[in-house]
From TrEMBL:
Higher taxonomy: Eukaryota, Metazoa, Chordata, Craniata, Vertebrata
PROSITE patterns reported in the protein's UniProt record: NEUROTR_ION_CHANNEL (PS00236)
Species: Haplochromis burtoni
Reaction(s) catalysed by this chain's protein: Na(+)(in) = Na(+)(out); Ca(2+)(in) = Ca(2+)(out); K(+)(in) = K(+)(out)
Residues annotated as domain Neurotransmitter-gated ion-channel ligand-binding: 1-124
Physiological role: Forms serotonin (5-hydroxytryptamine/5-HT3)-activated cation-selective channel complexes, which when activated cause fast, depolarizing responses in neurons.
UniProt GO MF annotations: extracellular ligand-gated monoatomic ion channel activity; transmembrane signaling receptor activity
Primary subcellular site in the record, as a coarse category: membrane
Protein name in the entry: 5-hydroxytryptamine receptor 3A-like
Transmembrane feature ranges: 126-145, 186-213, 322-342
One Pfam family of this chain: Neur_chan_LBD
One GO term describing the cellular component: postsynaptic membrane
Keyword terms of this UniProt record: Cell membrane, Ion channel, Ion transport, Ligand-gated ion channel, Membrane, Postsynaptic cell membrane, Receptor, Signal, Synapse, Transmembrane, Transmembrane helix, Transport
Amino acid sequence: MPDLTIEERTDKDKETKSPYLLIHWYGGVEYTNEQVVTTACRMRVYKFPFDVQRCNISFKSVMHSDNEIELIYNKNNKSMTTLTRSMMWTQYEWTFENLAATNKSSIMYPHQTVIIYTITMRRRSVLYIANFISPVLFFLVLDLASFLIPDAGGEKLSFKVTVLLAVTVLQLILNDILPSTSKKVPLIAIYCIGTFTLMLLSLLETIVMMYLIEKDSAAHHNETDEEQNLSVNCGDKWCKANFCVRGIKSSDCASVCDESADETQSVTEKRSSDKLTEVSLGLEQVSDELREIGKTISLLSSNKKEEKFGYWARMVKKINRVYFIFYVTAVTVFLSVLISLWTS
């Protein structure tokens, strides 16, 4: 029998060879031997799970040259594809696409012809879309929707951390299902890494926003405490001065008012009543003016404090708005480029 072999074969011939020969009336001899062969094929998983693989099965003689054995093959690729598709019962995760046959002759001695059958297969990507690609996309949409959660509480931060951990678990699943025979980084790995990076940036943005809100709240509490301390220390003095100028006597201002009464008596003994009246009127006008100035200063200081208190809150709203626009734009561009590379 001819010493035919398959170049890509990786296992030994364990099949029992058929002992039967078919001899035709014109002298031709036909021998048929069915085999289950395991061959090596380089996988190109750059577009996994939308990849198309082409594997070769090469037949040649081990020792004989073309002068001793002539290898003939069917050149009608369409008929071979139809026949092969009709004979295939199960295809598992692969779909048979095409079968083509070519020949190649060696230049060096001994001159031999090699028959090469190229099998084209396409991977079934439905299960990978349903079990991996879609969940990662859903988590990305959830992270995008988390911008509707207020930054004041810790619910937004915990939600983003949970989503990020879920994507990390899916990355571990990808490590198990992805073949490691490609020189390039597969697009599905870029898809997972890019999604993880976007979610991580979103998480960092949330942490910074919560820090700014807490900084604003802490500043407000400090100002409130200072105002309370000042009111406790200076309230009595302001009350005494105010009541004494108006001539109102109370238990808190008794001593101060007595002293002013003594001074008034001493003044009345030295000066005339007309001059005393003018002085009292002038003091009342000065006290009114000082009171109006105090009200204006207190109003301005309160407005400044309110503006200072709301500064970081307004900045958080602006930063959230700008980052949301950036986040949506980045997700759209990233997914568009990835889909175009997958379908090209």
